[in-house]
Amino acid sequence: ELSADEIINLYRGQTSHMESCFKFIKDSTFKLNKIFLKKIERIDALMSVMALTLFINNLGQLLLREELLMKNETVPNQLGKPTDTPTLKWAFQLMERVVKIRIKIKDKVIDQFHGIEMAQKTIISCFGETALKIYGFP
Q1: Could you tell me if 54 and 25 are in contact, meaning their C-beta atoms sit under 8 angstroms apart?
Q2: Which residues pair with 99 in a beta bridge?
Q3: For residue 44, what pLDDT is reported?
Q4: Is-contact 125 116, C-beta < 8 A?
Q5: By C-alpha distance, which of 53, 75, 58 is closest to 125?
Q6: What gap in Å lies between CA 81 and CA 76, rounded to an integer?
Q7: Angle between the N-to-C axes of helices 40-71 and 4-26, in degrees from 0 to 180, rounded to the nearest 10
Q8: How many CB atoms within 10 Å of residue 86?
Q9: How far apart are the C-alpha atoms of 77 and 79, rounded to whole Å?
Q10: What whole-number distance in Å separates Cα of residue 9 and Cα of residue 22?
Q11: What is the 3-state secondary structure (H, E, C) of 5-62?
Q12: CA–CA dist 69, 89 (Å, integer)
């Protein structure tokens, strides 16, 4: 059995999570205000894609946060202060600073990444060995 305070805290926790999900879906990145659908099938398809997108975002954010906690690492938040609970959207914004440069000399192609600082390396390392290899880390 739960006390009234425990029930209220659980309810409030669910509400804030649901609000963050709706905020994610309504984000201007998706430009959903520019899409007008009339057919039910297309509305269903759009909602399926958005639900899948929300799932992938939440999973990526969970993995990022768990890895940061496990490694006892942080990344700077929007104010430059360390946080171990960044949103995945913020992590992507930090990764926008990374640029891939491809140089072709004769028949040899060299890929280099620029703009990888400590925050970006921390984010990359949270997604495993494959991510590290993609960005050229041993």
Answers
A1: yes
A2: 114
A3: 86
A4: no
A5: 75
A6: 5
A7: 120
A8: 24
A9: 5
A10: 20
A11: HHHHHHHHHHHHHHHHHHHHHHCHHHCHHHCCCCCHHHHHHHHHHHHHHHHHHHHHHH
A12: 18
Give me the average pLDDT of each 10-residue run along the chain (138 residues).
83 70 70 75 85 89 96 96 94 94 91 93 95 90
Q: Burial-class residue 126 by CB neighbours within 10 Å (0-12, 13-18, 19+).
A: buried
**Tokens read off for 41:** 């099938």
Q: Are 89 and 23 in contact (CB under 8 A)?
A: no
* CB contact set of 102 (below 8 Å; sequence gap of 6+): 109, 110, 111
What's the helix, strand, coil split of the chain in %, to 5? 60, 15, 25
How far is the C-alpha of 105 from the C-alpha of 73, rounded, in Å? 39
pTM of the model: 0.72
